[in-house]
Amino acid sequence: MSRIYQLKRQPAGAPDPASAHASIDFAAELNPQQFAAVTSPPGKALVLAGAGSGKTRTLTYRVAYLLENAIAPHNILLLTFTNKSAREMLERVDHLLPGRTAGLWSGTFHSVCNRILRRHAAAAGFTSGFSILDSDDSKSLMSKVIKDNAETVKQIERATGEKFPKAPVILSLLSFAVNTRTPLAKVVRDRFSPGHDVSEGIRKIADQYDQRKRDANSADFDDLLTRTLDLFSSHPGILAEYQFQFQFILVDEYQDTNPVQGEIIEKLAGTHGNVMVVGDDAQSIYSWRGADFANIIGFPERHSGTQVFKIETNYRSTPEILSVANASIGLNTRQFAKALQPACASLQHKPVMAALYTPEEQAMFVAQRMQELHDEEGIPWNEMAVLYRAHFQSMEVQLHLTRAAIPFVVTSGLRFFESAHLKDFTAYLRLIVNPRDDASFERIAQMLPGIGAGTAAKMLASWRLSPFASSGTLPTSFSDLLASIKVPARAQADWTQLGFTLDEFLDGNGGIHPPATLMRSLWEGVYQKHLKASFDNASSRTEDVLQFMAFADRYESLQDLLSDLSLLSGPEAADSAKSKDRESVVLSTVHQAKGLEWKVVFIVWLAQGMFPNLRAVEESGDLGLEEERRLFYVAVTRAREQLHLLYPRFWPKSYAGDPWQQPSQFLSEIPSTAIDEWRIGSGF
Prior knowledge:
Layout: H1 17-20, H2 26-29, H3 32-38, E1 45-49, H4 55-68, E2 76-80, H5 83-96, E3 105-108, H6 109-119, E4 131-132, H7 135-148, H8 150-160, H9 167-180, H10 184-191, H11 199-215, E5 218-219, H12 221-234, H13 236-245, E6 248-251, H14 259-268, E7 275-279, H15 293-297, H16 299-302, E8 307-311, E9 313-314, H17 319-329, E10 341-342, E11 352-356, H18 359-377, E12 384-388, H19 395-403, E13 408-410, H20 420-433, H21 438-445, H22 453-464, H23 467-471, H24 478-483, H25 489-503, H26 515-534, H27 538-552, H28 558-567, H29 571-576, E14 585-589, H30 590-593, E15 598-603, H31 614-636, E16 639-648, H32 665-668, E17 676-678
Parallel strand pairs: 1-7, 1-8, 2-3, 2-6, 4-5, 6-7, 9-10, 11-16, 11-17, 12-14, 12-15, 13-14, 15-16
């Protein structure tokens, strides 16, 4: 006979037994600085939470404190930068006060604005059930608009001699303009085309893109923010409703907010003024994607009577690591003065500074030192990380970790040579070595304007009939070979140029030039324009290609270069990243590493012009230098126990400046007593 099991239901309105006796001893569970911020009276507050100081704990306990003091959950708004952060904070609050968070508004700016727009769709110019375009949807719609303006695009290309930007590039320019409140023409001039004014053409396409979204009852991610502001401006009563509801507003990572997000906060807090923004001016590192440092640095000036709380006890790093971090960031002038204080005991490991002869030896050092730390000190692979300013700076490290069979994952993007632009670039080289490489031919063909998979397949059939493809014997003229293959009219000019460029590969003696020479011709003759028009982050991808050329300069044989590249995508590389559960060293840009930590950190390429980045300093002067120093501070404070600061002395580059590298000024700014300088022996 089956058992009947009865669920017991609480009477309506009865308190949750788990929460009826919940009580938090805030003074016992927080340090004095955290306690002061958590229990502060209503009003405007700026909480400066240094690296590793328990920012999330402070925010979590602030929410719990408000609930404990009879603030209803629906009167609290918690704004974060990821939904994961919002979930984690609410879970922690729910653990402190079980059953007390129902009705609390929390989430990203986009998710909260979406919720508001859903409730007032008609007033915002939507119908109910409007669609949100994800990034792929936006690219697809923008591509259609560009295609429908083909004649305008051709006219601009003829007038400028440049390729018109593709959908991802235009969307990136629009997004930056919208979120920073910067005129589109200025953004286009500064970030895409300083020499040619294509802003009117882009504006025309942007207006049509916007109209098509409206016609389709759709919004992209930027619209969620801007149309919420429009709603508040056109319907003051709706704004007043939310100003009345959200009696307490808390904002996480305030240093990362852009002008539009800052405006949303100001409007919602306009009546009661009970807003607590939490962040760290010393970790403001995202101006390139629209974050406005003025939001956090100017908060007290914009709001008289602001309470400023500094949380400076660091629970992550050793005193020796914090000594380096404090010495560096202390040189910035635009900041709130503070210094991290260690809660951890000294492990008698000063940060190591070492100059290696070349980038390759720098990578060899990283691999050898990691192996020692793993074998001799038992440090797990996943407790070690390599951080760098730009993705291309991981190239040699990836190669040497693969050779050493050290498992690694690249969190700053794809493995270096798996990136789309470098796969594009190497496709040309692979086809020269192996003319029967169908995948490379089709990849090259589809980079041409107006050519899709079907046309590329027809071109491939013609290519296969050529003597070069059938025998592998180099032609006397690539331009003649390509001229024999029919292409659409729109692609003819680029196809002809490719033939002329490939002719430059031939050395006149029945062979081809060294790899670096081939790549230089390819870059200048074909790929530079394609990259600029195709990728929204063209400047960083350009650096990747230029450094790839410098890397290739050590090779005389194209076959040898391609063989080494295959190491980075072969079985060993695949095995090292096959499972996320497997212990793996992390390779990451500093930007991607923010918020993370490891026992051991290697910061590579600390050479002047590399870190700090030369372009960032040239474009923004002292402001750019100070952001670069903040970025270095973020890198240093990722380390818990051991820190290695490395740079190469010599780099025989093909494209830029003196091959002799100077140490980063950030290294020179560290007191010599704070570091342990290693001299690398001749074994390297």
